[in-house]
Q: What sequence folds into this?
């Protein structure tokens, strides 16, 4: 049988390759990665920039040698430029030229790329991948030395231009999503005066309660938040970026990070005639199969099915990629396994604040998905009120008025608030109603929770409205 | 209509009284409490003894005045000594003598009491209620002064005998349940050399992985754990307890706390001919109704229904009491509301360690409940491995071999491990299988969790066995 060919050596691709090889060691598995990094943690890059993580290779989950040991034929610096679904081959360009590789099964794990709508000059960065992270760290960390840094395959000389100029003192961040919020913390840690620009709401998928708490925290930490502000572009001079333009005004900055979103890498699929979904990502069924025979897609380039709406959605996050890749590896190995639905569960840290969200949080989003939403936001303690360390925890819970089914929610606070969202993610998966959540037997002891966990308090209050 | 009469002014009773009065303000609600404390947090007493909580009234949720403001007729120091279910009356003995009180609905929230199998002399304590907590704190805290302490209705002079003798230096704790483990931490905080005696396993309902971690932590903190040790009694001299006898040996101690369990207060119910269940607690249906017309029972004196087995069980914990009381209050007010099932979810703190459990954790317990269990224990990180603060988290997951349904599990670790049990409690409520848990969309970001949350890792490993 022709090998299981995987395009892309990150979360989805290597999860699939590893699982397939483990379940069926006789199957040949080839992974093509166009870059030099494989199996790295995108989500860790802001903490590398911040300096909370020391070495760049700390962000690598599986070293190439470990991948070899699993019997996977990993080819870095090999770009798949074409898929022929009729012939069952991919065309690969590598250091030794171009060749065709037949596949028995094919997984597209091509990932996504950062959207950069600006005419960006020097010192205007996006953050998507380890080379970006290394460049920003080199630029802002006065203690960073390319020659002594753990950089993996990145050559020290490529970073020298970033360290040979004065360290920036004022930075603009454009975009108030994960990258924007996390980079505000990361840049502030280096003493940089940070201005965060956001066209509409901060972290819009988290809803207004989280946005309000995050803005309050950012500002308390010295970040200037420019909400509802349209950035029109950057000025630059010989030394790099010199200013940011917005709302007919201008601010001098000497560094900028643009985090306005990412888009799925779908050219390879669409050029091959593989169907995309309405979200723009590759359409897949519940086993991760595209509409081409034997061709799967997973990770940031592919759609998922939403646990609440049942509809295709595109929420490119790490667990989704790992889980779908693993399921596809198992399917390819002979045991058909669904990739699972997603609840859109996500957590984000802003200095000491943690926030989580799942499902449809805002009434707007719930209405778009066809529900008649009713929503309540409450504030409760994180522990018994008398127990040291108790802090306010704010929960938003949104439900469908007719059925009482819970559609989504958010949690925010400083004391272990973020992971409390897992309770809701699990309840969404189960299709629980508000009353069912209200009666959940959640854990109580004074050091960990009040008698009524904040999620239960929100359900109690919301139950009066549904 | 005759009033809604509540026997017992703690979690179940006052939750019911408050909810009923809120939903139906015209209904008369009378609460009889035989003691002087109402609405207090049992679970907080070890932290009061430790000194982490300063005042005794900090443990009170609702002050008597707040209860008055809700329109509840609260009678403290009134003991209900008889229930006549035919006449629909209770006999109450209070400061003004004995009288009969007719009821329209009656809730028995009589609680539980600490089991004390030993012939206990002076300085051999149990811990069940605020007077016990005050006495122990007075005895062990050299900075405690009855005249300056916040003691609520407790008279300072009653505590003077406890402070007028030398502070203990060696203490025995008998019993390795919640009270035993929490009191080990509390007594150690005062510099006391603590010996913990346990007949069988520590925290048996949590399973061996938690027990092992807790013992390791206790011993690292200087507590001597005597496992599998049968205590036979205490010696005393004029100054109080002087020794503990066990295994044909003896240890000098000058304080002892016995925490070998609690038993439900059911005499009032059984004397009235109300049926008890097999567990020995009052039998109730899914609305908290006993077999007597208009008579409910809730809290530590009543059974609950187990979410996994569907069978009656007795797990006296705070949320169960509050939740059942609230539901009964709503039912009595005219809107029938189930009290909810319990998953036996519980969390405990042992110094810096936190542990949670839900459902049937041990194979023995699962087999007793009629399942064919298979169980795995894994250790995973609490955060991404490269993120500061990541710590080992150990998860045990137990499932039914035939159906794959998850039956229970535990979590233990130092970094936000305990409340991770809520994911499992919610999944148990939903009747999830191992594969369904494996595909849950739990929250991931490096500061909060690895890509695969420890619960998901356990499900991945267990899925190979079911």
A:
């Amino acid at each position: 049988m022709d090998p299981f060919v995987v395009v892309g050596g990150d979360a989805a691709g290597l999860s699939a390759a590893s699982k397939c090889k483990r379940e069926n060691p006789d199957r040949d598995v080839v992974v093509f990665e166009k870059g030099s990094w494989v199996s790295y943690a995108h989500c860790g890059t802001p903490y590398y920039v911040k300096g909370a993580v020391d070495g760049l290779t700390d962000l690598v989950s599986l070293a190439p040698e470990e991948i070899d040991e699993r019997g996977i034929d990993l080819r870095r610096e090999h770009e798949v430029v074409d898929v022929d679904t009729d012939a069952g081959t991919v065309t690969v360009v590598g250091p030794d030229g171009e060749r065709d590789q037949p596949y028995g099964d094919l997984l597209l794990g091509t990932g996504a790329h950062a959207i950069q709508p600006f005419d960006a000059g020097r010192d205007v960065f996006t953050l998507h991948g380890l080379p970006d992270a290394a460049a920003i760290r080199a630029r802002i960390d006065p203690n960073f030395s390319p020659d002594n840094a753990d950089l993996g395959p990145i050559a020290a000389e490529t970073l020298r231009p970033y360290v040979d100029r004065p360290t920036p003192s004022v930075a603009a961040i454009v975009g108030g999503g994960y990258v924007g919020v996390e980079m505000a913390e990361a840049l502030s840690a280096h003493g940089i005066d940070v201005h965060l620009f956001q066209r509409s709401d901060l972290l819009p998928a988290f809803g207004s309660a989280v946005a309000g708490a995050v803005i309050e925290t950012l500002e308390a930490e010295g970040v200037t938040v420019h909400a509802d502000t349209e950035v029109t572009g950057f000025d630059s001079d010989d030394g790099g970026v010199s200013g940011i333009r917005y709302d007919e005004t201008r601010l001098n900055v000497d560094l900028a990070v643009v985090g306005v979103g990412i888009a799925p890498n779908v050219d390879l699929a669409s050029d091959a005639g593989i169907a995309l979904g309405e979200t723009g990502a590759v359409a897949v069924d519940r086993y991760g199969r595209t509409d081409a025979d034997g061709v799967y897609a997973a990770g940031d380039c592919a759609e998922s099915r939403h646990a609440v709406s049942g509809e295709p959605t595109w929420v490119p996050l790490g667990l989704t990629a790992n889980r779908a890749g693993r399921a596809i590896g198992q399917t390819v190995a002979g045991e058909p396994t669904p990739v699972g639905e997603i609840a859109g569960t996500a957590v984000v840290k802003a200095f000491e604040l943690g926030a989580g969200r799942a499902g449809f949080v805002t009434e707007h989003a719930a209405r778009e998905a066809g529900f008649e939403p009713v929503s309540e936001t409450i504030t409760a303690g994180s522990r018994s009120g008398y127990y040291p360390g108790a802090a306010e925890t704010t929960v938003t819970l949104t439900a469908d008025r007719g059925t009482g089914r819970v559609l989504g929610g958010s949690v925010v606070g400083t004391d272990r608030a973020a992971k409390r969202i897992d309770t809701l993610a699990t309840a969404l998966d189960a299709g629980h109603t508000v009353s069912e959540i209200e009666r959940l037997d959640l854990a109580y002891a004074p050091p960990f929770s009040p008698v009524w966990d904040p999620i239960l308090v929100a359900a109690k209050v919301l139950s009066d409205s549904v």
About this structure: The CA atoms of residues 215 and 236 of chain B lie 29 Å apart. The longest strand of chain B covers residues 373-381. Chain B has a mean pLDDT of 97. The longest helix of chain B spans residues 318-332.
